[in-house]
Amino acid sequence: MPEPFVKTTSRVIAIPRANIDTDQICPARFLKITDKAGLADALFFDWRFTPDGQRRQPPSFIDEPRNAGRQILLVGDNFGAGSSREHAPWALRAWGVRAIFSTSFADIFRGNSLKNALLPIVVSPERHASLTALLAANPDGEWTVDLEAQKVTLPGGDSFDFEIDPFARTMILPGTDEVGYVLSRLPAIEAWEAAHPARVDTREGAATR
Amino acid sequence: MADRPRTLVEKIWDDHVVASEPGAPAILAIDLHLVHEVTSPQAFTGLRARGLKVRKPGQTVATADHSIPTLDPSIPIADELAAKQLRQIEENCREFGIPFHGKGSPNRGIVHVIGPELGLTQPGMTIVCGDSHTATHGAFGALAFGIGTSEIEMVLATQTLLQRKPKTFQVRIDGRLRPGVGAKDIILALIARIGIGGGTGHVIEYTGDAIRALSMEERMTVCNMSIEGGARAGLIAPDETTFAYLKGRRFAPRGEAWDAAVARWRALPSDEGATYDRTIVIDGDALEPMVTYGTNPGMGVPISGRIPSPAELEPGARDDLGRALAYMGLEPGASIAGRKLDVVFIGSCTNGRIEDMRAAASILRGRHVADGLRVLVVPGSQQVKKQAESEGLHEVFKAAGAEWRESGCSMCIAMNGDQLEPGQYGISTSNRNFEGRQGKGGRTFLASPLTAAASAVAGVVTDPRTLPGVASLPTVARSSAVEAN
Description:
The complex is a heterodimer. By secondary structure, chain A is an alpha/beta fold.
């Protein structure tokens, strides 16, 4: 069951690349698990290790020693493109990431992230450029992402509001379970089903398959 | 609302809204849920933890495709994790009463190949699967899209999803494709134009004469890669081609139910005067075979073209291209044709259907693959395999020096042992050329089955229209698809 999430304060990791796809975030060979174990180690694995398993030098973004423990990412446009694997947000969460700033997110990744209380925060290209400049000038400054107030506070005290799906916000803040929410509307589902007979029955002739 | 002209997407959407509360996403009913071994285990675990059953097992169907080996099925699975995952899907399906087309089933195959060939995929449906290529089913005029594992659990538990209404994006392909140019080239050209985030937030409806002229299998190829343009779904209005494909298939309606269904399906196409949030038009006559050179599907050029130079691009895109060319080991400005290859992969949910097998065989018949080249031909399903073998296509491939395998996702996602080695170049009929997608360090050129097969003969990226001895190439593969059963 989800836990409540209200805000986080953390230093920030910059990954200044566009179109980071979910095969980079969590390569497919790590999808053979049947649980969620070990995904923190899979995060950005092929960026971090050579094909023969050596850690790359200089270390990749999240492996830089000073980036240890940071919970916020500032990334390029269209983050999370490609596969629908929820292993991507699971791996980010397992590493400790709670919020990601970009100019856009791929649709399925954005939805999957919100279901795991990982906040995809969309900012304008201008804001993105100023955040990038701020982070370059103050790489160890702490940012606060406050979901309840929908506000980001930067080192030095500047702040700005951000947009997020209002429904997702109301689910994430108290840690409400979406399946429970829908099941509480069961009468509406039953009424729809009564008026719309199933189009197929996949079990038909199952004995001969 | 009934008076306002509506698009195909809006009609399907309106038909499936169970509840719509202010501020909340709609609760959308799901007609068909396709399940495979890789993205479902944690959803079943969640269901068990809640003590819930699968709400509609008869609207759910499962198979094994991603991590299953394509070798002789009598060989034990060497990869213990894959073997465990395959055991788990079988156990989960048994426990929850879901029909499962597993190893040994004549109906097993890539989830997006078997849905249509069994007649489960039908116009006007909402279809979901924990796989981003679920848009394939949009070829039938269904609203079909990929979902994550939390959403799989939601659909298993409730047969609904919480969804916000998508925007609509019309992609009109006018004119007529020239010989040697096919569905794969349409979609690669579109993605090269709009970019891999170009369709974000939208559902694409493909329209126009060039789309109407496509067979169902070619339409599936186009819709399949909608996600590569950022669109979660892509669809095509149903027509006589759709109905002819579906009639007589195992799960298609029969008798009076068929007539009623066709009448319902005929009302689905977008109304005259319906508006889209966005529209673009592409001239089908001007399209050429397409090949990608980079590390995302938007990095594609006509096969007679050159690899772009970072200096030609907008400043923001230069880094992306520079990194992609460094990974690919390619020179800016070089021609894409003639690039050396190590491996050719023909298969996947994009191009693993019988017409794709026929297209590849039309090139490989009486020819041999280049020395030192590994060529893997992997049918999309066991039904495709059986049909291909009944036509003798497997003998064509084997005589040409290619490997003929059992069905599955195979080297498209490289989870089952079929993969590129670090540094190898492969031309692939699949859908993604991301870094490491086909094996860590592997380098992928995406192309059509005709282009891949021609390249297999030459050993380098080759325009199928220029292969010596190829007098004519098919335009639209009009031959019938896998027979209904």
